[in-house]
């Protein structure tokens, strides 16, 4: 299986900064914005976007994380004893703008599960979606509001986002046999 790096550390930094600026532009500032990342890499990306927003606006942005394991529609096929991580979500979302963050948008099923979990915490005014990579192949009608990079890849291609806090480096790799990847 071939492995190809399509995004490096500097690209990740630029994508996060651009997403932060797009969030500010769309929402005309940071008033009522809350960042929520999907564990394990979405939460790290959300924290970085929140840091950039704070640098730009001079205001700290509430940032939390959720574990969607128990909200998955395929839980029984994942594992007999799935590992459930903690949800770190200690603020009120009622009437707020929640920016949900994940590393890769693919079928949309992870985002659907995350939306279900967020709604269990209250009724936000709006939920927006930010992803580092959008690779297409939706199974549900879900679309990101903010995208770091869109790629076109075959369904058998593996898209692996690496985040320094989790993996020791920032980057995006694609792995696959004959599937073509275009960026």
Could you characterize what this model shows?
The model has no long low-confidence stretch (mean pLDDT 91). The chain is α/β, with parallel strands linked by helices and 183 residues long. The two termini are 19 Å apart. 36% of the residues are buried. The protein is built from 5 helices and 10 strands. The protein has one domain: 3-Layer(aba) Sandwich (Rossmann fold), CATH 3.40.50. It has a 5-stranded parallel sheet, with helices on both faces. The protein has helices spanning 9-27, 42-57, 75-78, 109-120, 164-167; strands spanning 2-7, 33-38, 63-66, 97-105, 126-134, 146-150, 152-153, 158-162, 171-176, 181-182.
Summed up, what is this model?
The chain has 183 residues and is an alpha/beta fold.
Present the secondary structure layout.
Elements: E1 2-7, H1 9-27, E2 33-38, H2 42-57, E3 63-66, H3 75-78, E4 97-105, H4 109-120, E5 126-134, E6 146-150, E7 152-153, E8 158-162, H5 164-167, E9 171-176, E10 181-182
Parallel strand pairs: 2-3, 2-4, 4-5, 5-6
Antiparallel strand pairs: 1-9, 7-10, 8-9
Helix pairs in contact: 1-2
Q: Features of this protein?
A:
183 residues, alpha/beta, Rossmann fold, five-stranded parallel sheet, three-stranded antiparallel sheet, 10 strands, 30% helix, 30% strand, globular
């Amino acid at each position: 299986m071939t492995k190809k790096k399509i995004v490096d550390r500097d690209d990740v930094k630029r994508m996060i900064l651009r997403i932060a600026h797009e969030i500010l532009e769309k929402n005309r500032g940071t008033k009522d914005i809350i960042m929520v990342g999907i564990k394990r890499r979405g939460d790290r990306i959300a924290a970085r976007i929140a840091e950039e927003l704070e640098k730009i606006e001079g205001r700290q942005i509430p940032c939390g994380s959720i574990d969607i394991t128990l909200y998955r529609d395929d839980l029984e096929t994942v594992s007999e004893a799935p590992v459930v991580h903690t949800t770190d979500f200690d603020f009120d979302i009622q009437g707020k703008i929640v920016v949900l963050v994940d590393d890769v948008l693919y079928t949309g099923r992870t985002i659907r599960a995350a939306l279900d979990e967020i709604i269990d915490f209250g009724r936000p005014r709006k939920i927006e979606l930010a992803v580092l990579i959008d690779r297409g192949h939706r199974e549900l009608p879900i679309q990101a509001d903010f995208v770091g990079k869109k790629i076109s890849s075959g369904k058998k291609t593996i898209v692996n986002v690496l985040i320094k806090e989790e993996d020791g480096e920032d980057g995006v790799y694609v792995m696959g046999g004959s599937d073509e990847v275009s960026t």
